[in-house]
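Researcher: Structure for this, please.
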Amino acid sequence: MSAGSVRAPLVIPLRLPTEGQPRNAIDNATLIELSSDTPSARIYFTIDGSRPDPIAWKPRQPQPGPTYLFREPFTLPPGTKMIKAVAVHPSTNQESNVVTKTFEVLSVPEQHHIDKTDTGPGQDDYDFIKELKTERALVRQASSGITPRSSSSARQRKPTNNGSRPTGLKHPIPKQRGKGRSSR
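Model: Predicted structure, token format:
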């Protein structure tokens, strides 16, 4: 490889190898990552076996041709898919060699039933949100000078008669004037 040349991109399926399956067999839920060792190189690719054309690529959706700019990992539709990728240096427009990788993409049926024993991936997310809200409340209490009370020492705060909020909160509640009272 000569100095200043652009390194060819790598086509990497983001999954663990499956025992008993060929290396090029993936399912339609497997993400594909494209990367290059050349810093700031843009990677253009096709999934139909044609050569990527970085010059014809336009930043709009849908593309007029089969060339795409890699931005994030993607999945492939079922069937035999040939990915061809080329890395391009943005300032010199120098292209790398074209890399070709063929995958046999198997269709994975979607799960339409709910397993009652499985809490599902979303349950941890909801627990995380609850924990986050609790932590934020504790931080707000600590920053405003209010100390959190435990259930064993549940004392009620006495209301104040001066019309302001209890000590520690930022904004006082304005006194309300009744109808018929005149302000002098």
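Researcher: Any notable elements?
Model: The longest helix spans residues 121-144. The domain at 10-106 is CATH 2.60.40 (Immunoglobulin-like).
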